[in-house]
Specification:
two-stranded antiparallel ribbon, binds magnesium ion, 236 residues, 5-stranded mixed sheet, 18% strand, binds adenosine-5'-diphosphate, alpha+beta
């Protein structure tokens, strides 16, 4: 419980920070980079952009990443998303993956989605579905930082039957290592120096709240970890 409280406090602080940084420091940085780009060539001639255009672009990209981090943080805490309703599974998958897109690009991760040709609805909250996908995709991104040989891949796929949706998230990272496959779900169990061991606990609890099941296969279909989630649906 203390870990939850500490992380909740960190989350609240992050949301405040995200809000403040988008409002003020990021705007100031952006306006001033514009000024530098305008006045530089006038004062120093065309060599200015030749020499400094690259670094200026890099600053802009880094600012974009900060902006994205901020908007993700803010969107995760929108109150409306915590209300129970009919949630369109494929729509949430699409929006979470779109949010992560800058990170996929930055880290050269190819994401392939193979969603069933239907529109399954879950009885839950948008926040719950977001937390499942966000935690699994974050874990894959972190896993790639370990040993990565060759191209990084994540596959997100769904299979829909009359009563259930099966969601799979697979990566070609190192797979579950240094921890038993049954311990990964426990709060506080992590193999990472700065890990919290809460991501998969949240995934497990969110899935259980929806009367679903989650399991891990490692090595999975892409060679790394593969999480398979079965959820009852309202219809599709
Ligand atoms: N995609 C993955 N690839 C390899 N190992 C993973 C993956 N996802 C989870 N794990 C393992 O499960 C552990 C627990 O994950 P999690 O509960 O999200 O906590 P944390 O991310 O804070 O370590 C991780 O420390 C890691 O060892
Ligand atoms: Mg995690």
């Amino acid at each position: 419980v203390q870990l939850y409280r500490t992380l909740s406090t960190a989350g609240i602080t992050a949301a405040t920070f995200a809000h403040e940084s988008a409002a003020s420091p990021l705007k100031i940085m952006s306006l001033n980079i514009d000024t530098v780009e305008r006045r530089g060539p006038r004062t120093f001639g065309p060599a200015f952009l030749e020499k400094l255009g690259g670094p200026l672009d890099k600053i802009r990209n880094a600012m974009k990443s900060i902006g994205v981090l901020g908007s993700v943080t803010l969107s995760l805490v929108e109150a409306d998303k915590r209300r129970p309703r009919r949630v369109d599974l494929h729509a949430v998958i699409g929006s979470v993956l779109a949010t992560f897109e800058p990170f996929f690009q930055q880290r050269e991760v190819a994401v392939d989605t193979a969603l069933a040709d239907s529109q399954p609805f879950l009885r839950t909250s948008t926040a719950a579905v977001e937390s499942i996908i966000t935690n699994l995709v974050s874990n894959s991104l972190i896993a790639f930082e370990e040993a990565t040989s060759g191209s990084r891949r994540i596959r997100v796929s769904t299979l829909i039957s009359a009563e259930t949706a099966e969601l799979r998230i697979a990566d070609n990272g190192p797979g579950i290592a240094g921890i038993s496959k049954s311990d990964i779900w426990l709060a506080g169990y992590t193999t990472r120096l700065h890990g919290t061991g809460l991501g998969l606990t949240i995934v497990h609890d969110a899935v259980a709240d929806m009367a679903g099941k989650v399991e891990v296969v490692s090595p999975g279909s892409l060679g790394g970890a593969e999480f398979i989630i079965n959820l009852p649906i309202l219809g599709s």
